Amino acid sequence: MKAGRFPIRVTIAALAVASLMPASAIAQSRTFAAGQLVNVNVSFSTRVQLADSNEETLASAQQAGRKYIYNMVSKECAVLQATIAKSCRLNSLNISAQVRERNNMPANLHLNGNARFAITLKDEDPG
Fold first, then answer.
1. Residue 126 domain flag
2. Is position 14 within any domain?
3. What is the spatial distance between Cα 65 and Cα 7, in angstroms, rounded to a whole number?
4. Residue 81: inside a domain, yes or no?
5. β-strand partners of 106
6. Cα–Cα distance list, 114 to 24, 70, 101 (Å)
7. Based on the structure, what is the number of domains in the chain?
8. Beta strands 37-49 and 8-11: pairing type?
9. Nearest-angstrom CA–CA distance, 42 and 117
10. Do 70 and 3 form a contact (C-beta atoms < 8 A)?
11. Distance CA 98, CA 53 (A)
12. Per-residue model confidence as pLDDT tens for the chain (127 residues)
């Protein structure tokens, strides 16, 4: 299985709103000061349909799914630095997997990842 084939849903609570606002509105609305260290939590999820539920298939799907989430996480600092962060580092990452089987339906492997980044906020845009 190729990791690039997996559909992914990315949930970014605070950042989704911030990315839609102009920089001046962000500066006025945030309660954090420029240069302040802030933690940002980002959740990633993906689903992999399993051909069968044998151990080898499941292990392979879990590894491919984790690699896909790792790849998404590896790009997140660039997204943060393009928007609100002057600096960024990954503090923690948790990935969980669950097999869901339903009657007369192929089994699916659901993977959820939660990443915590420490960022330093960009200086406010004076313009």
1. no
2. yes
3. 10
4. yes
5. none
6. 29, 11, 24
7. 1
8. antiparallel
9. 8
10. no
11. 12
12. 444 444 434 444 444 444 444 555 555 555 678 888 999 999 999 999 999 878 999 999 999 999 999 999 999 999 999 999 999 999 999 999 999 888 888 899 999 999 999 999 998 765 5
Q: What does pTM read for this prediction?
A: 0.69
Sheet holding 85-100, edge to edge: 8-11, 37-49, 108-121, 85-100
Calpha distance 127→100 (Å, rounded): 51
Q: Could you tell me the residue range of the domain that residue 76 belongs to?
A: 3-121
DSSP 114: E
Overall residue count recorded for the chain in this entry: 127
Tens of pLDDT, residues 56-89: 999 999 999 999 999 999 999 999 999 999 999 9
